[in-house]
Amino acid sequence: MSDESAAPVTSKLPDAPFHTSGTDHVTVWGSNEEDTLAFYRDLLGMPLVLRQPNLDDPSQTHLFFDTGDGRILTVFVSDERASARGQRVNTGAVHHLCFTVEPDEYEDIMAALEEAGKGYNVFDRGIFHSIYTQDNNGLVIELSADKYEIPDDRKGEVLATAQRLREEDGADFAQDRHMEGALEELGLPVNKHDLPDADAGVGV
């Protein structure tokens, strides 16, 4: 393809119904927790800041790692899966990509998806609020908005504190009270965004 016929490459925002505001997290299919921790935490040095069930399939565990700049890598693991080498269909593959959107654009985003003929689901994940749709190849795309105002460089710290509060509370997954408690404990303001009510996931 010649440069003349190729799509222009530019840093200018395209004329689109909405614009993402950053990358929130990447989630991959992992093998088991032991091997996953050995690589991401013990070798790459990523703190494990949250552990809870996969809210769409509670038979799996959902691990959250702080990649170092407040951006999060998450991994679905199960003790029934062995680590594999080489090309893989499930283990080690990307489950979905997540992009950050502004909470006050949520309604506009859903309207834009509907207008484009894209189906979507909305879930309240406890620590954030998400719209799920698919790209042209069927890859799941998540458009995520934080439920609370959290500085990027404090996100891992907030999640780790919410994890501790969740465990102390005996709750299955992090919820509003854990996030609010974490923010208060860390001396951060508790500012909750106005987002639509939604289920936590299909597995709960």
UniProtKB/TrEMBL annotation:
Region (Disordered), start-end ranges: 1-25
* Gene3D superfamilies referenced in this protein's UniProt entry, alphabetically: 2,3-Dihydroxybiphenyl 1,2-Dioxygenase, domain 1
Query: Which keywords label this protein?
Result: Dioxygenase, Lyase, Oxidoreductase
InterPro entries cross-referenced by the UniProt entry:
Glyas_Bleomycin-R_OHBP_Dase, Glyas_Fos-R_dOase_dom, GlyoxalaseI/FosfomycinResist, VOC_core
Q: Domain of life here?
A: Archaea
Q: Name one GO molecular function term.
A: dioxygenase activity
Matches recorded under PROSITE patterns: VOC (PS51819)
- Show where the VOC domain sits: 22-146
What name is this protein filed under?
Answer: Catechol 2,3-dioxygenase
Species for this entry: Halorubrum ezzemoulense
